[in-house]
Amino acid sequence: MEEKKPISHFVAGLIIAAILVIYSIILNLLDLSQNKGLGWLSYIILVGGLAFFVNLYGKAKDHQVTFGNLFSYGFKATAITTLIMVVFIVIFFMVFPEFKEKIMDAAREGMEKNGKMTDEQIDQGMQMFERNFILFSAGGVLFMYLILGAIGSLIGAAITKKQPRSPFDQQTI
């Protein structure tokens, strides 16, 4: 019987990241980046993609894997996806500063609607936010993607059929 070669965690991470980059660009170009529902869809793509690739990995290994093997595969793919997305966010906001301005305007509007801050406090908060925008953006992506990647890896490992071989099993030649 021919052994199936599993998709590497690196390739899985690249595929998920490519889908997320394309989706993010489309949202921004169509001016839909402030739509919270569509924003959540990117997280669903991440979690669903990870669960999908973890399941494919288990199938390629003829389900002779453990929960830990599957989770490890998923989290390695998460690391690749997260790294690419952090780099993408940094480059995107440097190349398209107008999108940064849209986010800054939305943040100011949200603070004003909240009504719990004075104009002076809002101005100070916005100055700090603008000075550290790239750091906050990259840090937010890093944090959310690692958390959601762990969840996607756990889901993928949980739903994938597992039949690990016993160390006492002997293959006859």
Question: Which short descriptors sum up this protein?
Answer:
mainly alpha, 6 helices, 173 residues
Describe the structure in brief.
By secondary structure, the protein is an all-alpha fold. It has helices at 9-29, 36-60, 67-95, 97-114, 119-131, 133-159. It has a domain at 9-96 and 139-159.
Overall 3D shape? elongated
The first-to-last residue Cα distance is 13 Å
Structural class: mainly alpha
Rg, Cα atoms, Å: 21 Å
Which regions contain 5 or more consecutive residues with pLDDT less than 50? none
What is the strand content?
Answer: under 5%
H-E order: HHHHHH
- Number of helices in the DSSP assignment: 6
Mean pLDDT across all amino acids: 86
Describe this structure in words.
The chain is an all-alpha fold and 173 residues long. The chain has a domain of 109 residues. Helices cover 77% and strands 0% of the residues. The chain has six helices and no strands. The mean pLDDT is 86.
